[in-house]
Amino acid sequence: MIMKPMVAGIAALGMVMPAAAQNMSYGADNFYRSNNVSIQPISFQTQYQTTVAGNLFYLKDESQNTTRPAVLVGHPMGAVKEQSANLYATKLAEQGFITVSIDIPFWGASEGDPRNSVSPDLYAEAFSAAVDYLGTQSSVDRERIGGLGICGSGSFLISAAKLDPRIKAIATASMYDMGSLSRQGLQHSQSAYQLKELVAEAAQQRWIELDGGEVEYTSGTLNHLTANASAVEREFFDYYRRKRGEFTPVGSTPQLTTHPTLSTFTKFVNFYPFNGINTISPRPMLFIAGDQAHSREFSENAYSRAAEPKKLFWVSNAGHVDLYDRTELIPFQKLTSFFQGSLV
Ligand SMILES: *[C@@H]1O[C@H](CO)[C@@H](O)[C@H](O)[C@H]1NC(C)=O
Ligand SMILES: *[C@@H]1O[C@H](CO)[C@@H](O)[C@H](O)[C@H]1NC(C)=O
Ligand SMILES: *[C@@H]1O[C@H](CO)[C@@H](O)[C@H](O)[C@H]1NC(C)=O
Ligand SMILES: *[C@@H]1O[C@H](CO)[C@@H](O)[C@H](O)[C@H]1NC(C)=O
C-alpha cells in the first residue's frame, strides 16, 4: 500500500508530539481568552523598515476618549507571541492597560530570513518599534508606556530600555540572560573551551550555507523526550511539545519550533544586556522569578547590577516554565500594581 503524503505527514506529527499527559497544575492556561478583552492582530515597522507582527489587547467597553497606560509584552526565547506573551497581555488588559504582544524578528509572524535567526539588536529594536506603534494610538498616553519581558525577552527588553527612555517601567518574568547563557551555560556549566568549539562550529556552518548547504538548527527544546533527558529539558518539553503550550506558527513546522539557527546563535555571545543596566534608573524595574527556577541566577544578577528603584520578587515553589502559563503562580496582581504605580 502506498502511503499518501498527508497520512505520512500526520504520522510524523504523532511521533514528535506524544499524547502523554502534560502537567496542567496551578491553573496552566497558556491560551486563555478573556470575555472582557478584545484582541486585534497588528503589524508595524521597525526603524530598519522590517515588519513586526503582534496583537493589540484592550478592554472591550473602554471609552476611546480617555488615554490609558500601555504595556508591551515579549515572549520567551524560542517561543512566539501565542506562548506566554498573549496570556500576560490579556491579564494586564483585563486590568485596564492597553497591551501589545509581539513576535520578535525572524520568529512567528514577524519578518526576517532565515527564519529562527538570532539578532539581539533587532530583537531589542522590535520593543522600541512597539513603543512607536503604541505611541501613535490615540488611546495611549505616550508618557505611560511600560514593558514586560518573559524569559529571553527580559534581556531583550532591558537592552531596549537602556537606549529607550520612552519605556517608563520594566518588568521581567523568569528572565534568561541570553548573552550569559550562550557564553557560560546555566550556572557556568560551559567551559571557555566549549564556547570556542561552539563558535567554530557556527562559523563552519556559515561556510556550508554560503556554499548552498541547508540551514542548521540548534538548542531549543527536545523534539523527542529521551530517557536521559535532563530535568530542565523535561521542564521545557512539557510546555513546548505538549498541548499545554505547543504552538506552530504559519510557515513553520512542529520540528522547527524553538530551535534557533546554528550559524546565528553565536550572535548572543556579544550580547551583554546587564552592562549599563544601572543607567535605566530612575525608571523602576521589577524582576519576577520562581524560587525553584533553574534560571534564578539571571534575575539575581540583573537585580544586583540595577540601580534603584528595583525589586526582586520570588514566587515561592515556582520553577522557570511555571511562570509561562500557570495562572495560579504568576503574580498578575503584583505586575498590575507595579505598572499602576509606575505609569502615572
Ligand atoms: C506539576 O507541576 C507543578 C508545578 O511546577 C509541580 O509542583 C508538580 O510536582 C508537578 N507534578 C508532576 C506530577 O510532575
Ligand atoms: C468622544 O469624543 C467625541 C468627539 O471628540 C464625541 O462625539 C463622543 O461623544 C465622545 N464619546 C464619549 C463616550 O465620551
Ligand atoms: C469582566 O468584567 C466584569 C464587569 O466589569 C467584571 O465584573 C469581571 O470581574 C471582569 N472579569 C475579569 C476576569 O476581569
Ligand atoms: C541521550 O539518548 C539519545 C538516544 O535516546 C542519544 O542520541 C543522546 O546522545 C543521549 N544524550 C546524552 C547526553 O547522553
Ends apart, CA distance between termini: 68 Å
Which CATH first-tier class of the domain at 32-185 and 268-339 would you pick? Alpha Beta
Can you count the beta strands?
A: 8
Q: Give the helix tally.
A: 11
Low-confidence stretches: 1-19
Supply the helix-strand structural class: alpha/beta
Strand order, sheet with most strands: 1-2-4-3-5-6-7-8
CATH superfamily of the domain at 32-185 and 268-339: Alpha/Beta hydrolase fold, catalytic domain
Proportion of beta-strand residues: 15-25%
The CATH architecture of the domain at 32-185 and 268-339 would be: 3-Layer(aba) Sandwich
As for the CATH topology of the domain at 32-185 and 268-339, it is Rossmann fold
Order of helices and strands: HEEEHEHEHEHHHHEHEHH
Envelope shape: globular
Rg, Cα atoms, Å: 20 Å
- Average pLDDT score: 94
Largest sheet: 8 strands, mixed
* Small-molecule components bound: 2-acetamido-2-deoxy-beta-D-glucopyranose
Query: Into which percent range does the helicity of residues fall?
Result: 25-40%
Protein name: Xaa-Pro dipeptidyl-peptidase-like domain-containing protein
InterPro entries: AB_hydrolase_fold, Polyketide_trans_af380, Xaa-Pro-like_dom
GO molecular function: hydrolase activity
Organism: Penicillium angulare
